[in-house]
Structure formats: C-alpha cells, structure tokens
Amino acid sequence: MEYKNNKPIFLQIAEHICYEILGGIYREGERMPSVREYAAEAEVNANTIVRSFDWLSQKDIIASRRGMGYYVSLGAAERIRQNMREAFFQETLPEFVRQMKNLGITGEEVEKQIKEMNDE
Amino acid sequence: MEYKNNKPIFLQIAEHICYEILGGIYREGERMPSVREYAAEAEVNANTIVRSFDWLSQKDIIASRRGMGYYVSLGAAERIRQNMREAFFQETLPEFVRQMKNLGITGEEVEKQIKEMNDE
Amino acid sequence: MEYKNNKPIFLQIAEHICYEILGGIYREGERMPSVREYAAEAEVNANTIVRSFDWLSQKDIIASRRGMGYYVSLGAAERIRQNMREAFFQETLPEFVRQMKNLGITGEEVEKQIKEMNDE
Amino acid sequence: MEYKNNKPIFLQIAEHICYEILGGIYREGERMPSVREYAAEAEVNANTIVRSFDWLSQKDIIASRRGMGYYVSLGAAERIRQNMREAFFQETLPEFVRQMKNLGITGEEVEKQIKEMNDE
DNA sequence: GTGGTCTAGACCACG
DNA sequence: GTGGTCTAGACCACC
Fold first, then answer.
1. Same domain as B18, residue B35
2. I want to staple B52 with a disulfide (CB 3.0 to 4.6 A). Which of A3, A115, B13, B27 is the partner?
3. Domain range for D64
C-alpha cells in the first residue's frame, strides 16, 4: 500500500478499512486483525493503526472489547455507506462544482474526459 | 478572508492570489501589493505572505525585482489555468469518479443534486 | 562549518548537503538527521534547516515522510551531479571564459597558475 | 541592459562601467555622465547610480569634483585591469578549479566545451 | 520603502 | 520524537 503525502496516513488506512468492510473482507461482528498484525501488513507504526482504529471506533464502525481486540460493529457497512454519501454530496461535489466554475469547465468536457478514462 | 484548517494558510493565500490573477485583479507585468500591504489586508504575519509569494515565484507566477516588489509574470494567467486544469483532470476528476463508483452513485443523481444546489 | 556572507546560509547548507550525498555520507533511501539534529550540528536555527530541507525537497533530492523525517530520494546523487554539471557548463564556464577574454588572459596563463596552486 | 538577480544591481552597473572604461568609452580625465543621465540610460533609480559611483570612487576609479560631477581618474584603466586580474586569479580561478574537481570534470572536457561554444 | 534572511519560540498533527 | 506552520521581531541590502 502506498500513502499520499497530503493526507494523514492513519486516515488513509481508516478509509481503506472502510472499503474492506464494504467489500466484505471484514464482516460485521467479526474480529479485526490485531493492531500489531495490521501494522505489519500496512508497514506502518503500530501507533498509527491505533489511531486509525480509534477513529473508526468514534464512527461506530468498529468497537474494542477489552483484551480481545477490535470487532466490526453491526450495521457498520450501512453506516459507512451513509457517511460517505453524505460527505460526497456535502463536500466533494460542491468543491468539484466550484472548481469547474472557476476553471470554466463544462459538463460536456467532464463527460468526454470520463469516457476517455474508461477507454484506457 | 477566512481560512480553512486543513490547509496551510500560506497555500490558501497563494491559491487565492491565483484566482485574483485569473480574475484580472492583478494583471501580467503589473506590480503586486507589497508583502506588508498584503499581510495587512490578509490579516496574517508578513512572513506568511513571504512564503506565499515565494511559492508563487517557484511556480513562475510572480517574480521579484530587487527592492521594487513582486510583479506578475508574463503568461502567468495562462500558466495558472494550465496547472489548474491539469490538476483537475488528472487528480480531482479521477478521484471524484472513483468515489462515485465506490458509492454506487450515478451520473443522474449527481446532475439532480447539482440542480438542487443551484436552486438554493 | 563556516558561512560566507554573500550567500544565504540555508543555501550554503543545502549545497553542503548535496556534497555530503555525493560523498556517500548520506545514501539514497536512508534517513537524514532530523531537522533539530542538523540544526544543532550546523549551529543554526532549526527553521533555517527547515528551509534548506524544503529547498532540497523541491529539487527532488530529499523527501519528507510524515512524522518520520527526511529521506534521501532515489537517484538523488545522479540528479545532483546532473544539476551541478549543467550549472557548470551553462553558467560558470561561460562566465569564466568571458572574464578571460575581457582581461586578455590566455589558456597558458591559466594552466601555469593552476600548476602553481597545486605546488603550494 | 538586463540585470541578474543574484548580484546587486549597483555592483553590476559598476562593473559595467569598468568595462566601458577599459573599452575607451569613458577616458581617463574625462567627465562621466551625470548621475541622472546615467540613471535614465540604465533605467534604474538615481540612488542606485549614486551607489555605483560611490563604489567606484572608493576604488579610485572615478572621483567627484564638487558641483562638477564625476571624472575618470588617471590610471583608472590600469587599476581596473589589475584589480580584475587579481580577483580572477585569487577567487574566480580557484573556485572554478574547485568545482571541476568536485564534479570530476577534466581539462579536456573543458577545452572541448569551449570549442563548441566558439562554433555556435 | 522594498524584499530577504535569520532567530526564537510557540503550537499542532502525526507516527 | 518527527516535521509543519505561524507569529513576532530583528537586521540587512537594496532602490
């Protein structure tokens, strides 16, 4: 896994875990890999994983059971989907439109570009 | 001017200046406000403006003339437009599409949402 | 280390680091001393080192990894060598020749002088 | 006339005047253009010329006569030539050789490059 | 008056 | 502990 420099690694990992949950790699109610396992896999410091897990806990996506590790919460997938849709429509999309306006880019241009991306 | 917390102030200012150049507020070949003037206007420390100006200099958008201030470089507007369009099509757009796919959001939904945004 | 007065300290340090990389003191992929360590060693303010490192980053000679320090980029030594050779042949050498011509100094004189320098 | 950014303008102008004296444009004992004339010609602030003239005065290359302007000193050309030769052999040349060594550039390479420069 | 550099110190996010 | 940012203020060279 590679990390971008403009975003905290622990957030990138948290987001990645969300996609893993959405993709069924970790299922609701099941146990997550231990912090140290995940740290080894992600090739980062264990503290970084702690922060990722902590962040996910605050979002009710996973939950810790003392001494037993972290477990995927019930309803996690649906909650993730809701959060992401909300973020998309309230942040990503408005910013996207703002940039289009500022740069004078039309919807047609965007559609054309998307088609080209798909062709590659 | 208000500053967001997730991005360095000096970068937000630099970007803002780019938009001012695109908007014709500062024209090519003309002199920029002095560092201290701009610092007062933007309500930040002069060193912060120095950093913004320095960043813009490295992008060939403005250039300093010894003891006389900073001047907008020739071709700055076009260069800004190119840089921004490139960033839009190579970073923003692919990321936008990636999110749409991941969240199962269709083009129709996006269009509908944009119309609602315009109505407000 | 001693600093000349006609050139910013942060640039002298950056250049010095380049020579250290060329000399194998810092190798590609390896971690640089921390900003504070280097500041102590160079006996300057940490911010000055930040600027040197920042300058080197923009030249793709080193790169920062969040919270872990700066690392020498791959290909850094070769890139430095290229940059320096280019600067030598496109700036230093023409200026050198220009001065020779203006002062009526011949190649023989130069060679003779170099030999004397070596003898000392 | 164009000015480089890494050297004070007043020094560039002073040096330029030296070459003008060496080239016989201003002859020993003759009057220099007035500060304002020269400022207009060089397209810089008059104070800048004042500094250039002042610098040349300290080197005994020109001298002011109260209310009458600046005159080229007797022996100026010879003095300039001496100063420049000294600077060349004590500063430029050692620095040039130092760079050659650091970059592993041989005398043959330099000669070859000089020939190419002449061919253009 | 202009920018340029350096210092000092604080605070923050990150790992 | 790491870098990153911002502030504050000083001093300098230059125009």
1. yes
2. B13
3. 9-75
Nearest partner of D1 among D12, D27, D11, judged by Cα: D12
* Cβ contact, residue pair C64, A5, below 8 Å: yes
Q: Using an 8 Å Cβ cutoff, are B1 and B44 in contact?
A: no
Instruction: Give how far D112 is from chain B: nearest CA, Å.
Output: 34
Q: E strands within A1-120? A: 62-65, 69-72
Neighbours of chain C (3+ CB pairs under 8 A): A, D
Q: Tokens for D118?
A: 């002449």
The residues in B 67-106 lying below 8 A from A, measured between CB atoms, are 81, 84-85, 88-89, 92-94, 96-97, 99-100, 102-103, 105
What CATH number does residue D53 fall under? Answer: 1.10.10.10
pLDDT of chain A along its 120 residues, tens only? 788 888 999 999 999 999 999 999 999 999 999 999 999 999 999 999 999 999 999 999 999 999 999 999 999 999 999 999 999 999 999 999 999 998 999 999 999 999 998 887
Q: A with C: how many residue pairs have Cβ under 8 Å apart?
A: 5
B56 exposed, middle or buried (CB, 10 Å; 0-12, 13-18, 19+)? buried
Alpha carbon D92 to chain centroid, angstroms: 14
Residue C117: list chain D partners with CB under 8 A. 93-94, 97
Q: Does D114 contact C92 at a Cβ distance shorter than 8 Å?
A: no
How much is the pTM? 0.90
